[in-house]
Amino acid sequence: MNSVPPLEFGGMSHWAALAVLLAAGLCIVELGQSYKKSVRNRTTLWLGTACLLSLVPDMIALLFDEPDKPWEWMLPVHFCSVMQVACALSLWIPSRILRSIVYYCVLCATLQGLVTPSVAHDFPSWTYFAFFFSHGITVIAALYLPLALQWKPARWDFLWALLFANLYLAAVHPVNKFLGTNYGFTVSTPASGSVLDLLGAWPWYLLWMQIPALILMYLLTLPFRHYPKGRTGSSLFRNCLLYTSP
Q: Rounded to whole angstroms, how far apart are CA atoms 31 and 149?
């Protein structure tokens, strides 16, 4: 078991990780906005690949820092793990619904994890690097969709994200009851504390959290209020074909 203490919220290592992610995000978005199509395509391809590969450090962190943890807790079915896969697909497939799900779910849920992290081991543990890499890369990908791929949601597209999030909770709760786990925090709030503690005891916090989720998703729609019809955005594969065609 790793002897490194839990991450201190608002501590030096927390702020350092956020600063690195901010710098990395600005660089990636800048590359995604390059006037060279080849640079934009490679950036989109590798960002999606990084989202998928970010699942690997998560598994390594558990093996190194918590080798005695039961296998039931090591399955890649956390909501953030699902979003890592969804982010990769959204970067490569020009689906407005998929991109809406990623944009709203990541910026409402995963971003909250970065701001108020629940990390069992602080710097320089595997867990520390895996957590901020996996959460950070998905947030960057969610912002990359409108800033680099010119995706725009329609007025009510955030409802697709809310529906997806609730379907995930409904699907993972029986898994938690069967395995004795707490994926998606459907059984209890995080032991280290989170904003969910402000919403009451189980199961009421699962119901009450729908209200702030709706408010946040609506606020995330405001930057696109001049695009009521939405926009799918560019396609990586189509751009690659155009770029490679004679």
A: 11
